[in-house]
Amino acid sequence: MTTRRDALKHSAVVAGLLAATGLFPTLARASWTKSAFDARSIADAVKAYGAGAAPAESKDVTLTAPDIAENGAVVPMGVATTLPNVKHLLLLVEKNPSALVAKFDVSDAVEANFLTRAKMGQSSDVYAVAITADGKALFAKKEVKVTLGGCGG
């Protein structure tokens, strides 16, 4: 019978071996794209995730966000789509210092419906972008008015 202490000890050994071979850090950062999170514009962030053409508006992409956010530090947002072959769903805030707020990886095993909270420094347009496997980018847009800024404001 394996005790909890033995299981933790074995897990620590495996994690140490993975870290020593260099596999652990690579797997932990597999979905991180620095250029996307450093992007200052919507187009640059979308392009960093493989969108070939300019994004087109679509009724198949749904963005949920409040019309007026009382506190910009915690603005609830949601993104969903019914499109087939979606690879990534992005949430972007146009006037934030870094436009990309969140990225969700989608597969056939995952329902493309996500909720999160984001910081908004000021009133801005918010975009939900779906990027398909063939490089098409489709979006929904909504203006969110912020009464109290969340990014140091």
From TrEMBL:
Highest taxon above the source species: Bacteria
Annotated ranges, domain Ig-like SoxY: 49-151
Signal peptide: none
Pfam families from the UniProt entry: SoxY (PF13501)
Record protein name field: Thiosulfate oxidation carrier protein SoxY
UniProt gene name: soxY
